[in-house]
Amino acid sequence: MIMAPAGAKRNILERLDAGEIVIGDGGFVFALEKRGYVKAGPWTPEAAVEHPEAVRQLHREFLRAGSNVMQTFTFYASDDKLENRGNAQRFTGAQINEAACDLARESEDEVKGIFKRQLDVFVKKNVDFMIAEYFEHVEEAEWAVQVLKTSGKPVCASLCIGPDGDLNGVSPGDCAVRLVKAGANIVGINCHFDPMTCVKTVKMMKEGVERAGLKAHYMVQPLAYHTPDCNCQGFIDLPEFPFGLEPRILTRWDMHKYAREAFNVGIRFIGGCCGFEPYHIRAVAEELATERGYLPAASEKHGNWGAGLEMHTKPWVRARARRDYWEKLKPASGRPKCPSMSTPDSWGVTKGHADLMQHKEATSQEELKPLFEKAKASN
Amino acid sequence: MIMAPAGAKRNILERLDAGEIVIGDGGFVFALEKRGYVKAGPWTPEAAVEHPEAVRQLHREFLRAGSNVMQTFTFYASDDKLENRGNAQRFTGAQINEAACDLARESEDEVKGIFKRQLDVFVKKNVDFMIAEYFEHVEEAEWAVQVLKTSGKPVCASLCIGPDGDLNGVSPGDCAVRLVKAGANIVGINCHFDPMTCVKTVKMMKEGVERAGLKAHYMVQPLAYHTPDCNCQGFIDLPEFPFGLEPRILTRWDMHKYAREAFNVGIRFIGGCCGFEPYHIRAVAEELATERGYLPAASEKHGNWGAGLEMHTKPWVRARARRDYWEKLKPASGRPKCPSMSTPDSWGVTKGHADLMQHKEATSQEELKPLFEKAKASN
Amino acid sequence: MIMAPAGAKRNILERLDAGEIVIGDGGFVFALEKRGYVKAGPWTPEAAVEHPEAVRQLHREFLRAGSNVMQTFTFYASDDKLENRGNAQRFTGAQINEAACDLARESEDEVKGIFKRQLDVFVKKNVDFMIAEYFEHVEEAEWAVQVLKTSGKPVCASLCIGPDGDLNGVSPGDCAVRLVKAGANIVGINCHFDPMTCVKTVKMMKEGVERAGLKAHYMVQPLAYHTPDCNCQGFIDLPEFPFGLEPRILTRWDMHKYAREAFNVGIRFIGGCCGFEPYHIRAVAEELATERGYLPAASEKHGNWGAGLEMHTKPWVRARARRDYWEKLKPASGRPKCPSMSTPDSWGVTKGHADLMQHKEATSQEELKPLFEKAKASN
Amino acid sequence: MIMAPAGAKRNILERLDAGEIVIGDGGFVFALEKRGYVKAGPWTPEAAVEHPEAVRQLHREFLRAGSNVMQTFTFYASDDKLENRGNAQRFTGAQINEAACDLARESEDEVKGIFKRQLDVFVKKNVDFMIAEYFEHVEEAEWAVQVLKTSGKPVCASLCIGPDGDLNGVSPGDCAVRLVKAGANIVGINCHFDPMTCVKTVKMMKEGVERAGLKAHYMVQPLAYHTPDCNCQGFIDLPEFPFGLEPRILTRWDMHKYAREAFNVGIRFIGGCCGFEPYHIRAVAEELATERGYLPAASEKHGNWGAGLEMHTKPWVRARARRDYWEKLKPASGRPKCPSMSTPDSWGVTKGHADLMQHKEATSQEELKPLFEKAKASN
């Protein structure tokens, strides 16, 4: 899929098999929401149609920052200029859930049927590989892998779970084994948790796969937010989601640690999800520059470990132009009236409960009122 | 200057005189650094030449978010499509300092001479008004105003000081009086401090101007970072500057408070500086939508006070779709090992000291070594 | 042991069997260190001999606060006035270790021999029951229980471990089963972790005992410090130990939550260890006043849930005279330059390592120097 | 007053004139509240009558910790054993207010009359000097000084104000001048703010006195709580007052900094108020041991700068036995869900307002109800 011109370059599996590091991109919806093109809540991806120049600019920035995978924001976002760099198509658990919802949750077969019809379109567009991602229940991911395998393309399967396993309590190791047996070539974790938590979870997946005598490649695409206070359902339950997450944003130096740890654990497809900006991906690429043999284009605008500060007028700012300084920095929040951690919401309801059915329309004011009352009482 | 087509629309003074609110844009260098186009340290603005599409896209996003001033990133960044929206030219204290440096600090007259030659170019391009900004010493700002007045355009003068006054200890009120007497039409504060601190400082400027029986308009373009721990020299002395400021980034709700407070104090030119992203400007525009009579374009992708969450599947997330929730939220940092405040650096050296002369080239390793030693000892 | 005069009152097991709640006291060495009578580091208990009035006063305060167990600070501290209230004798893991050390760790039998000779003295003094406490390895606690059982008195066995189990990785449940099988009547946790962590660990012990079809009573005597950042070796490894723990001290309201949770889990011997002051024990006694049927003497100087504030002159202070207020309060540290959590020390060395042998004399300056170097490098 | 036996030793003024450092004690009501003998809210001092052994023990501990002033907890607390150590009598602003209240605030003369009758009793008991303390309005302190001067004893006058001055806005410097002119020999600050804030305020008082060409000695008796978030009315308005202040308690190392700073500023009567425990006073005495020429008795149980840890079994704990370690420690709160700072209460009402009249009896439930409603709304 990467740097494609078909015959000329190797596909993603050939590259991973050869020991290369593949750097993913960041999450588009969060970045485009901040740029004014996506609505939080429905998170609808119509920006690709309405404002293609904004989507294209973000693709450019991630590529310049070192990504060598371009995940389509939506199918229609693919764009001639970008086409020959290869790209991957995502299929999310949310889509499957929506399909299930349309069908009143009738049956596995029907869900797969709908899903298959979507796939046909993407196959025609000749994407380089398929990613089934953002699943909280491993069996839904298995269905997706089974369908995607029919395309003949390499298939990645990525869950949005933490070390405690999926929402039915299946451990990361067992989840990974099931996905590999279903046919996934690359398995891993995306979204919902911070980088170190995701890397830890992928490590557990890898150990499970190896214990089972199987083989796979591993991917990780975490949040760019620190989430030590999450429960098993991830950052959506944090009170700050989605409009108060700023104090949790990782610095570029946090990203260096993440990239190194992911590499050490044996992960070779290393990217990002919600919260990642181009400079976060650049930090990943810079940390792994020696292993990859090159720096990304955007590093021409970024001194190594703060080296650009060597020209600053104040000597104490020049003294920050060193790795040791930034590695040890414990950055202050500037918010003395705020805590370090929150208590996740989650009103004792778990997935599958009737209260959690997808609504087609915005909740009415009458429906919202008891929610507001309950929320106030629980604060 | 705003929405210009010359005769058709009123200039900035006419608008402010009529009681309109003018919304500025955000700081370009910080935003473009994160997108991979500007180098922190030298902060050189060559992106306008090298990657005009990136600069243009950021202009688009700020305009879409509600800015009705477009401050040129550099002269050459001005772009046909944007030209007829009007724009403002910035002249910074740093430029004046550099000029002074070139001349070995010879004399006020020579500094003004160099400055005048730059001005001539901008006048030809017919910008709508001039902003002299980022001055730590009021007399430098006075010189700038005197030169800019010769253009016949409206002149803004903006200092990067806090409530303690300029680096010679001249109070905000006295600074403002001197700038107005020098001919500034609009006076205010930009950069160096967080929004509430800047608003407080402009309030002191306004009180000074009124006590002196003078009249002016007021502007504010603060950081998008919380900086309660700054000393009088601002955020550059914070240990997190410039690569560890993430935990300090304001949320959109912080911006609502800022916009309201700025309006209440009587400021009518309300914008942003380093750290502002388009969604921050949108929040300013949304807070003042009633007073201005319209919402910005980007609000079509942003429910009022989180209203977009009304469609979320989880009831506790739907319960966040209300103003009360976001106004009271004290967002956690997710960083329990980090403090809330830092101790600013500043090795007992102040502006004008020989150690602070601008270097033309990067500091050599021999020069840096003693700095690193000193920095380690002082930690 | 409680409220003793032999025939007149029931012993501790009879009381626990009858469903009574027994409230322990707090840790003496930490409290007396702050009062100026005990030296931190060696933590030597000579205060009982040198300043018996100070020890006696602290006993009085804990009894007044609601304790109905008086644990001898040392044997010699027992005092005529207090004698007829009954008391318990503690045998600590540290004592056993010291014995082991004296014997150059020769054998289990010899350790038990020394221990037995100490016991004989206490039996003569007719204490009401024996507590073997502060063990990090379950087998040492088993030896202690076996010896203490020969006294014919009720025996408590208390470990200083957390949910991860003892330092050899034996789970809390398995530890508890082994102690009960060795003859302990009451098993539980003391020291090393904060109240909620200790309660959680005792809960795991109880589940283990019940799964094994055994029966026991449960005790808990935690720290009065919040320790969410501890690793398995407890608060000694926190950088704040022992002279910087102040910001972690629990409020009286935290103690209410602890007492309620301990009660709900089924623990009936509820006390405290290092950091507990008399008012902390009083809070435990007040929380459980309904269940116990009476308030402690010291409650005459303490309004229920802040009721004493009803007489304050300021109305906003009077408004704090309510349970709801104190239950929800998230108390600020007043230390914006400090973090919420620390990283525990522990230089990769675990118990049993030669570096950890008890020294008879203070470490020499030559021995300390490399430690200081290492410590600085690891910061 | 110090180490008195009349002729034998010098009085407090002679000692201060000779350049000696006098160390005060800590606040009794807060310490005795935690020990179970005083009720927060009314803060009634009946403990001296009801539990003299508890009061006597606390006196012993402060003396042992290095205090050489013993401030009577109340008159009746004075005790034969302690008599010959000398002592000081306190007259508080609260007493004066109460007197004023009794008289329906009739006149300055009548207030002074009541006050004078109290004084007569103390004079008979031959205390060594008088302290008028805890005044928020300088004129009340002036009245007190005028009355106390009639005793012929040295008089201290201490306000509970911060750098912003008294509640009528009289600056610390002007307050001090007025008190010295009224006859005070020693002026200073006690209670309401943290040590560094109090020292800063006394420094301003000293500068005022010196500017006026007057002479005085200076005293400081601050809180043992960090209060960076207080407004001008001090810690009573903090939401944590008085039952949630634990995270703010100063460490012994904080006290070293305080003692050094107070000494450097020229203060020679250095003590403590609410929150001070004996070990805090010991830290003050240890910091100033060189200047005073001796260590307090309690230092026999306290290694210099943590030296007692040299005997600890774990090498990383032994490595904490050094000044550098404790001086640099930024102690964690262990409370990641709590903030660093609070917002002071103060419902727009200031002293003198009818809502703030002292009540003779506890507020009734009907009176409290609207307060609770208001408090909830303002959270």
From TrEMBL, chains A, B, C, D:
InterPro entries: BHMT, BHMT-like, HCY_dom, HCY_dom_sf. Pathway: Amino-acid biosynthesis; L-methionine biosynthesis via de novo pathway; L-methionine from L-homocysteine (BhmT route): step 1/1. Residues 352-379 have a biased composition (Basic and acidic residues). Keywords: Metal-binding, Methyltransferase, Transferase, Zinc. Residues 330-379 are annotated as: Disordered. Binds 1 zinc ion per subunit. Zn(2+) binds at residues 191, 273-274. GO terms for molecular function: betaine-homocysteine S-methyltransferase activity; zinc ion binding. Its cofactor is Zn(2+). One of its GO terms (cellular component) is cytosol. One of its GO terms (biological process) is methylation. Residues 10-288 form the Hcy-binding domain. PANTHER family: BETAINE--HOMOCYSTEINE S-METHYLTRANSFERASE 1, HCY-BINDING DOMAIN-CONTAINING PROTEIN. Involved in the regulation of homocysteine metabolism. Homotetramer. This is Hcy-binding domain-containing protein. It comes from Coregonus suidteri. The lineage of its organism: Eukaryota, Metazoa, Chordata, Craniata, Vertebrata.
